[in-house]
Design brief:
By secondary structure, the chain is mainly α. The protein has 8 helices and 2 strands; from the N terminus they run E-H-H-E-H-H-H-H-H-H. The chain has a two-stranded parallel ribbon. Helix 4 packs parallel to helix 7. The N and C termini lie far apart (57 Å). The relative contact order is 0.12.
Amino acid sequence: MATMNWRTINIDLLDPESPANFSTATLSPTVPPVSAAEAQSLSSQIKQLLRGGDSEGALRGALESPPYGGDTAAKEVHLATVVEILQSIKQSEMSPLLNRIYGSEGGVEALDVLMKYLYKSMAHSSRPSSASLNRSASPQSGFSQIQQRGGGEGGGQAMSVLLSWHEKLVEIAGPGSIVRIMSDRRLV
């Protein structure tokens, strides 16, 4: 009689609904590929709108066409464009602009994309800059806050703008926006 160690049986392989029995790639929607050149072209068109004084049109244009299928360079170009747009809009214009976008067709999806960009830019700006990483470490006694937060000179101001947008966006779109972007597999 052959002895089988029942503790080593992978029971997930026996369950037909187990993730081990199907490809998790089917959970992600297919998105068209976007090159860095296409993202750069879109970025220049959006910046043209911004220079023309149409900040709402620029923000809508950026939010309606995120480069989900783009490479890292395309996503970085689009992120920089969105952050530039957000920093150019006055705080008094935030709530009315977000209300107009929310009330329009596809507004909920656009605000969800904005929430994705807010979180990505907060994570991006909170990384230490290369200049602070290359500094030689000197022994210090006690607690010190010598290294700057926010990745450099203007990091604190940029983070303040992003947090203001986040506050206004949660007021208008609600906390459901956060839940939706956390469960969405498409990354900006």
